[in-house]
Amino acid sequence: MTSDKTDIFTQFRHELHQFPEVSCQEIETRKRIKNFVSQFNPTRITEVAQTGLLLQYGEDDHGPVTLIRADIDALPIQEVNTFGHRSSINGVSHKCGHDGHAAILARLASLLAEKPVTRGRVYLIFQPAEENGKGAEAVLNDPAFASIRPDRAFALHNLPGYKQGVVVCRPGSFTSSVLSLIVKFTGKVSHSAEPEKGLNPAYVMADFVLQTKKIQHPEPQSEDFALITPVYTTMGETSYGISAGYGEVHLTLRTRNAKRMEALTNQLLALLADLSAETGIQIETAYTEAFFANENDPETVEQIRQSALKLGYPYIEKQEPFKWGEDFGLFTQKYKGAMFGIGNGEDSPALHNDDYDFNDTLIEPAARLFLELIEREHS
């Protein structure tokens, strides 16, 4: 492989980085990906999940079926970097490295074009809307995906803070269960000079937030890990003669698995019921942006470990799940599979930071690792 060939995937990644699109809006992103990967002669290209793309390699209906997934959406974050490929879209940028994940999958497509799949089928899914948790569900519910039923499903995520190129994995939960909770507090508006004639939710909201701090177990090594993060609150109006009658608190909840999440939400709902009974404030709850924990199949993890070591890549087995969520967990709920991480560099800015950028040197080794996993299944 020549350096020129490597450069086209770096250039492709930079193009995606310059023109980012947030979840469910990846229309131009899909066009760019489709135009680029068409040169690698997939057996079939299918548009899925409204703004996603599915590539098929191989036509053997009797052999193994492998799915490799990359996400393609960006975040509503203003980029502060000044390099040549910086985002050209105000307030939107690739701050989780999904542009890099897509470039890795494109490089894998080129490798499959060079070494055709003769046994079974391989599917590459460029998945939209990972950041809001809607993309995996949209893929799985798409009729075009219904007949695929992969024997193995793989995905990766780049990992800032880890040495460049190190492969990180673990059996069981790899990423956390994540759920966002919206709590609405309804009281009664009154004159601010006579708050006793109304029902102001402020103190109930404050009490609730303070009590969540006591409920959580933020130590990631603990089996009872539960992180509760306040992310947004609103109450009343900027009219100083009015005592507020309505407010909201939004929280993000993180646990090791779905069972622990159920216990945590039940605990919070019981707390809210008590606060409502004590104060007369009406309380309603709603959930959004749910992410299932990535439950890595132990046999699949062993395949990743052996493949990484065969290629000479350093390998680390993580002792506890990552605290962030990833909607590939919906795939691992349904199919045998695993997500692994690859180090983005020890000095890399963290994910979702405004100065983050994907490390282009990961494109080639990550694509080669996916190819090795495919060859283990399909040789």
Automatic annotation (TrEMBL):
<keyword id="KW-0464">Manganese</keyword>
<feature type="domain" description="Peptidase M20 dimerisation">
    <location>
        <begin position="178"/>
        <end position="277"/>
    </location>
</feature>
<feature type="binding site">
    <location>
        <position position="157"/>
    </location>
    <ligand>
        <name>Mn(2+)</name>
    </ligand>
</feature>
<dbReference type="InterPro" id="IPR017439">
    <property type="entry name" value="Amidohydrolase"/>
</dbReference>
<dbReference type="Pfam" id="PF07687">
    <property type="entry name" value="M20_dimer"/>
</dbReference>
<dbReference type="GO" id="GO:0016787">
    <property type="term" value="F:hydrolase activity"/>
</dbReference>
<dbReference type="InterPro" id="IPR011650">
    <property type="entry name" value="Peptidase_M20_dimer"/>
</dbReference>
<feature type="binding site">
    <location>
        <position position="131"/>
    </location>
    <ligand>
        <name>Mn(2+)</name>
    </ligand>
</feature>
<dbReference type="InterPro" id="IPR002933">
    <property type="entry name" value="Peptidase_M20"/>
</dbReference>
<feature type="binding site">
    <location>
        <position position="352"/>
    </location>
    <ligand>
        <name>Mn(2+)</name>
    </ligand>
</feature>
<keyword id="KW-0378">Hydrolase</keyword>
<feature type="binding site">
    <location>
        <position position="98"/>
    </location>
    <ligand>
        <name>Mn(2+)</name>
    </ligand>
</feature>
<feature type="binding site">
    <location>
        <position position="96"/>
    </location>
    <ligand>
        <name>Mn(2+)</name>
    </ligand>
</feature>
<dbReference type="Pfam" id="PF01546">
    <property type="entry name" value="Peptidase_M20"/>
</dbReference>
<dbReference type="GO" id="GO:0046872">
    <property type="term" value="F:metal ion binding"/>
</dbReference>
<protein>
    <submittedName>
        <fullName>Amidohydrolase</fullName>
    </submittedName>
</protein>
<dbReference type="InterPro" id="IPR036264">
    <property type="entry name" value="Bact_exopeptidase_dim_dom"/>
</dbReference>
<keyword id="KW-0479">Metal-binding</keyword>
